[in-house]
Here is the input.
Amino acid sequence: MHTFFLILLLGVAVLATPSLSAKYERSKPDESGYSPSTFTPPVYKPPIPYPPVYKHPKVEKPPVYKHPKVEKPPVYKPPKVEKPFPEHKPPTIPPPIHKPVPPYGHYPGHPPVENAEYYKPPNKRFPPPNSSN
Here is the structure.
């Protein structure tokens, strides 16, 4: 469908163009060298005298009213009293929170292992009392 419209447009374009055999004829130039059809001498136009710009006269404004200053009594500040430094106390350490220890071999998210001794890693620094190492 698109090709049909393209062919139709091309046909219309070919019919609308003038024949290529007809050459463009220029008008012959005058003795001055310019062709009369394209060149017209510039016409002198005197500048237009514009009236001066109107400026409004300055209007004197009355001075801005300022309220008279009202003297306020000074703000009362209580006298400074030097406080003695507090006694130095050692920091208090809270008692340790007792957490129930899971049976050995119990990993978070897993049930306790029946044979926990089998999974116990060897402790070389503090061997268990019944080991023969």
In short: The two ends are 96 Å apart (CA to CA). The chain has two helices and no strands. The mean pLDDT is 72.
